[in-house]
## 1
Amino acid sequence: MKPLLALGLAFAAVLAAAAPARAWDIFTFPDAKFAAQFPSEPQMAQSKYRTTTGLEAPAQRWAIQERNVAYSVTLVDFSGTAFDKDTAIADAVKAFGKDGEVLVDVEARINAEWGRELSVNRKDGGHDIVAVFYFDNHLYLLNGRAAPPDPGAATANLIRFQQSLNFMR
């Protein structure tokens, strides 16, 4: 019986190791006019966003933390300010550059909206994969952040998160 029990336990261990990773889901936020894939349901909190020039604007932030990786979308309301699309995007890119070395900074599009996609090696040894867009007087900052000691292990999920952002009309 003991060999059969050992075989059963070994089989169970193999099945557990081969089990698929938890599926990501698309979460939609119609009032905020966006959807994105997260590994689990994010929590929303009200916050403030400060530009590199010191302007403070109201913001909402959807975020989830999983082990050493944080996923967040921050929505900044620039209506009623002098920040236009180009200024808001350039300022956000500049802010990420202050936190580390921007390795990639490319133009990106979601439907008819243009923005920037960044890859940043942070000064603390972490890594950010970012999408920065401006839509309907709002700045959208999507950030997947992997902390040390091995931020590279999360690269596939960070890119998946970055590429999942979509706008709703």
## 2
Amino acid sequence: MLADLQHKFTRAFAPEFTWEQIMSSAEQNLIFWWKNFSILQTSGVVKRNLDDKRRFKINLAKAELIRLIEYEATILESVPNYPEMQSEANVEEIHPTEYCSVSYDYLGHGVLCVLNSSEKWKAHVLSKHQDLVVELAKLRSWAARKYLGEDTQRPSSFDYEHEIACSRFFFSDEKLYQRIYSGYGGQI
């Protein structure tokens, strides 16, 4: 009901030719609230794992994240037809939540998008961190491909690398990666 009210509010008060107005729907609001909830939860993990001198407790945070990911995998496994349900809901174009959280470095891609407006920073990234840009391209970032001179309207010359996603998002725990990836309908 709140998502529907927010949609109506957006329709009534947001400028007509804005992205917010074009994309507004009750479903979109729910998806973005869920995304924002995950950001708040991540913030909570960080806060809970700072000591009194604000030093980050890496091993405790890693253990907490693994528990949270295992919980997510258990939830996905309890819904064996999740990919079909998602397909029937037909909301995937609103925001690719699972894709951003499982196999795509949304933060890295976003940073490249922001830095793209500065030739100085773009040159710095390519000269000092080209290996990371290549990794992002292998995780299907169109911004990384663009940095590397590829035409993003054509198929990528970079093959997707599950090993990078497994390492980056799941602490190289292949079984956990497979549980999540498969739960969201991916095939390894």
